[in-house]
Amino acid sequence: MPAKPRKSQPDKPAVIVLRVPGHIKNQMIEHAQKQGIPYTNWAVHALINQMNQDTGTPPPPPATAPIPTQLEQLHAYLRGERLLLPCGREGLSCAGTERSERVGGFDFCPECHIRVL
What we know:
This protein is mainly alpha-helical and 117 residues long. The chain is built from three helices and three strands; from the N terminus they run αααβββ. Helix content is 35%, strand content 7%. The chain has a three-stranded antiparallel sheet with strand order 1-2-3, with no helix packed on it. A hairpin with a 2-residue loop joins strand 1 (101-103) and strand 2 (106-108). The model has no long low-confidence stretch (mean pLDDT 77).
């Protein structure tokens, strides 16, 4: 009996088991500790970076400003102000940009790589 095809679950966290020699795992843990991040976060970041390299995805440019928090967005909205987004554009979001990139069914700002809602 053939195996059932697996359903795609892009937003559901998945558990991946990797078998590596102990000395390599120890090196990975030490490297993550030197960077001050949890080992699992470092491993996910390393996998994503490698996938981006393999597919030729360019790294995002340096941010002009931090991503505004919801509180900052609310304050700006109530005062009638516009915030500076990471891509350098003024506004509350990158929504309405004519050049948004579509990836996996979602639109992203081409400059700051923030999901457009």
